[in-house]
Amino acid sequence: MVKKLYIKTYGCQMNFADAERLKYIFEKNGWQITDNIDEALAIFAIGCSVRQHAENKIFSFIDGLKNIKKQGRVVGLLGCTANIYKKDILNQHPHINIICGTDYFDLLPEKIESALKGEKIILVEENQNPFVIKTNSKNSIYVDIPITKGCDNFCSYCVVPYARGKLKSRNSVEIINEIKNLSDSGVRHVNLLGQNVNEYGKDLNIKYDFAELLKEISKIDKLLRISFMTSHPKDTTKKILETMAENEKIMKHLHLPVQSGSNRILKLMNRKYSREEYLKIIEYARALIPDISITSDIMVGFPEETEKDFLETYEFVKEIQYDKIYIFKYSKRPFTRAAKLPNSISEKEKQRRHSLILNLQKKISRKISENYINKNVQILVEKINKNGYLEGKSLNNKTVYFSGDKNKIRSIIDVKIEQYSSGSYYAKL
Ligand code: SF4
Asked: Which domains does the chain have, with CATH numbers?
């Protein structure tokens, strides 16, 4: 009988990319991935520990699986949460059979056999060769490609350096070969992923940086689009922005988390840039690429964030006019420097600040979106949605729907935006 694996993923795009690679590894080893938890022999949760709320959700899912052991099935906790708490997790959740950090996914098909016999498997140390190479894409058009892992920046609120270890850049030849193989199997858009892709290559001690990598990838013939995430403002160089502007395959979208508009808070966060320096990057990007879409992350309620600090962030969001922002309420994370700071903001106050910025951004996003009506844009057609519309992304990362010929999937076509509704654009050929 075919062994089946159920995977539950929480958290960021990096975790979802890890899940895709985990599926690939297990399928290569004869397992089937199932959406039906009841028929799975193994159940894995890929955990996120960036915020307390995310962590609570994982452990509540894991605790719902307490009787599974009696049925001869195994439960695994994988990813960042496994790396942070290691075998201590077993004190409160003894029914977990496998605790595995992100660097060891390729060992799991072999180790799971021992777990099925009752052994506890713990794989959490850092590994020197953590990247899983994916050679086929099951007809996908879009694939996430991890190019770095880990982070040495130690922003004071962030647990990632403790969960994913030091910055590790993947060998560029390996990245290029993987993308070439994927483009031969039909992939047309790759999204380069890392905690801070702009630092690509820093740890390799070679004169090859992120902009060089972008140029090299863009030479792959069948590939039509390249995007990337996430960029750290302190490492967003003119060279990267100029490469984006010059190269027609690189998407004109920059996700540049600012976190706060207050220099005092930015310093406490250890972000290593000021609001003035951040603004200069945005101005340069917009001068080079007028149609660029800029998105950001904002954190409210950081310890010691006064009303004045908050209002500076509020005004900054108004000044920048982001296409979209993701707003987070600060939550205390283990090991981090911010966890030791006094004067935490109450949950009620965090919620008030969150709502104020959210309402402001809704108005800004609506205004920006309405400006797209009647614009001509080029779409990479990705699929037909359930309502029969073709669906694709514009060069600046807007999702657009329109009626057309399904043979156009995998091609770039011109459309005119006609309507904007609930976060989606509708267009005609
Ligand atoms: S750059 Fe800062 S926020 Fe981003 S992963 Fe690294 S430490 Fe965390």
From this structure: 4-123 (3.40.50.12160), 140-251 (3.30.750.210), 376-428 (2.40.50.140)
CA distances from 70 to 77, 317, 423 (A): 18, 53, 46
253 token code pair? 């979208």
- pLDDT grade, residue 164 (50/70/90)? confident
**132 in Cβ contact with 147 (< 8 Å):** no
What pLDDT, on a 0 to 100 scale, did the predictor assign at position 66?
86
Hey, whose CA ends up nearest to atom 1 of ligand 1? Answer: 153
pLDDT at 129: 66
**Which residues make beta-bridge pairs with 46?**
9, 78
pLDDT confidence of 128, banded at 50, 70, 90? low
Residues 6+ apart with CB under 8 A from 325: 295, 296, 297, 298, 317, 357, 361
Tokens of 429: 């050929």
pLDDT(148) > 90: yes
What's the mean pLDDT when you consider all of the chain? 93
Q: 172-184 and 210-218 are packed helices; what angle lies between their axes, rounded to 10 degrees?
A: 30
Pocket of ligand 1 (CB under 6 A): 151, 153-155, 158, 160-161, 195-196, 232
Those residues with Cβ within 8 angstroms of residue 67's Cβ, 6 or more apart along the chain or in another chain: none
Ligand 1 geometric centre to CA of 18 (Å): 18
Place of tokens 């972008």: 214
Q: How far apart are CA 60 and CA 294, in angstroms?
A: 35
Q: Is the pLDDT of residue 71 over 80?
A: no
Which of 15, 102, 151, 265 has most ligand 1 atoms within 8 Å of its beta carbon, as the pocket-test mutant?
A: 151
Both structure tokens of 403: 């009626």
Phi/psi region, residue 343 (left: phi>0; alpha: psi -120 to 50; beta: rest), is left
Are 101 and 81 a contacting pair, CB within 8 Å? Answer: no
- Residues 216-235 have pLDDT tens digits of 999 999 999 999 999 999 99
Closest-CA residue to 368 (of 416, 316, 418, 321): 321
CA dist 178 to 140, 187, 307, Å? Answer: 14, 11, 49
Distance of alpha carbon 2 from alpha carbon 199, whole angstroms = 42
> Are 305 and 265 a contacting pair, CB within 8 Å?
yes
